[in-house]
Amino acid sequence: MPRSQRMVRQIGRLPSPLYRAYERRLLGTLSTSRMPRHVGVILDGNRRWARAFGEPAMTGHRRGADKIAEFLSWCEELDIELATLWMLSTDNLSRSSDELTDLLVIIEETIRDLAEVGRWRLRVVGRLELLPESVAAALREAQRATAGITDGLQVNVAVGYGGRHEIADAVRAALRERLANGEDLASVAECLDVEDIAAHLYTRGQPDPDLVIRTSGEQRLSGFLMWQSAHSEFYFCEAYWPEFRRVDFLRALRSYSERERRLGR
């Protein structure tokens, strides 16, 4: 069976009766008026999950990749509009060549398969020029192939992504635009503001994340959506990404719904 079909079949896979009962309980605590529009997820813990079972890192990366379609189906069920998934950071590019080569193959296959599902509009965010050209081309093609999907869940796949790099790229793009319009650097420095930078982020035109989830128990953002997460709520989950369950997601949403979001006011 093709991998894309396996991914679709995973969407319908039911958890155990015990978890189904607990999920129903959690769902009953959620208010549709207090659901996040945009959820960002740091998919962390693939290698540690594999190590716990005495398996190589690639087993964890593949298991983590297979979790993505299932997660997106949960977002759909709950009418979440946008999900941003951090699949590869710029720091990850310094891993051993063998692991990185295998990981890029998995990422390329996964994003191609997500596009083939045909339900999600994909946007690739990150410095694709840092990736092998064949991988970058495949990711651009997946984005192009889903560009016509206008309804339902939108998905940002962050590959070769670093929050500091994104801000630096946005500032450069804003400066180039203003200089191309005939302004001099001194005048640009006087009036450049947050709106100018926001208009050139990888996620421009999209709402900022309401909720950012990190799996694996680590309690840091590591540069994920640094600019966009200024007013985000954070949720740190102990489960490694490959074992992240729908019930874990519902707990994150319950925690989010119980918070008072003042947004600096």
UniProtKB/TrEMBL annotation:
EC number: 2.5.1.-
A GO CC term attached to the entry: plasma membrane
Cofactor annotation: Mg(2+)
PROSITE patterns: UPP_SYNTHASE
Residues that bind substrate: G45, N46, R47, R48, W49, H61, S89, T90, D91, R95, R214, R220, L221, S222
Cofactor: how and how many bound: Binds 2 magnesium ions per subunit.
Keyword list, A-Z: Magnesium, Metal-binding, Transferase
GO biological process per UniProt: polyprenol biosynthetic process
Tagged with keyword Magnesium: yes
Subunit architecture: Homodimer.
Record function comment: Catalyzes the condensation of isopentenyl diphosphate (IPP) with allylic pyrophosphates generating different type of terpenoids.
PANTHER family: DEHYDRODOLICHYL DIPHOSPHATE SYNTHASE COMPLEX SUBUNIT DHDDS, DEHYDRODOLICHYL DIPHOSPHATE SYNTHASE FAMILY MEMBER
Matching NCBIfam families: PRK14828.1, uppS
Protein's recorded name: Isoprenyl transferase
Naturally occurring in which organism (per UniProt): Rarobacter faecitabidus
